[in-house]
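REQUEST ID: PR-0412
SUBMITTED BY: lab tech R.K.
PRIORITY: routine
TASK: structure prediction, single protein chain
INPUT:
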Amino acid sequence: MKARIHITLKNGVLDPQGKAIQQALAGLAFDGVEDVRQGKFIEIELTESDADTARVQVSDMCEKLLANTVIENYDIEIVA
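STATUS: complete
OUTPUT:
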């Protein structure tokens, strides 16, 4: 079983890397880009076969290590 985790900054948290990407895109003549927010993507291969149990385990991983829950949100996708 595989878990895919998308981690993004919460709304209202400044994103200087996203701003730098936006400016670089403008410099490359990609017009019409109003805002860029960057994040992280983590994929974990699990031995767990129950999707609900896997989701709980991965959520615990996010809460304890993978995401800074003060400034970041995370979304978990479990793939069989």
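NOTES: The domain at 2-79 is CATH 3.30.1280.10 (Mth169; Chain: A ,).
REVIEWED BY: pending
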